[in-house]
Amino acid sequence: MNPSLIFKIANGITLLAWLVLILSPNQLKVIRNLRVFVSGLVLGGVYVFAIIVGNGQAEGNFSSLESVRSLFANDYFLLAGWIHYLAFDLFLGTWEVEDGIKEGINRWILVPVLALTFYFGPAGWLLYLILRYVTKTIDKKVQTI
After folding, report:
1. What is the pTM of this model?
2. Which residues cross the membrane (predicted)?
3. Are the beta carbons of 48 and 77 closer than 8 angstroms?
């Protein structure tokens, strides 16, 4: 199968999963399905497929930036790298929502955090941790009043 086509399909599935995560009226019910089936089985399966198909066709390794660039010159390894981001960012987004619910963070306040996690995973994660800290600090101060 063409790596460009797989890329488009994976992006579409992932975008749909993020929309379900954000817009679902009962986020706790969809988290498990998104985490296990979409992030784990679908994207994880595509990742493994891309690695297997690309294996032996690429030069490079993970020993230096130049070697990684060489490795990602192969479309299947580049696809695997992209799928890696999609899978882990979605997994992280489901965790942020689940933890946010436990911490009592308003779901609509999480929307910008989730958008940032979708586009720039570690930056969204950092913003979530800051939001969580600020929310806990404010809650403690309100409780002492």
Report:
1. 0.90
2. 6-24, 36-56, 76-97, 109-131
3. no
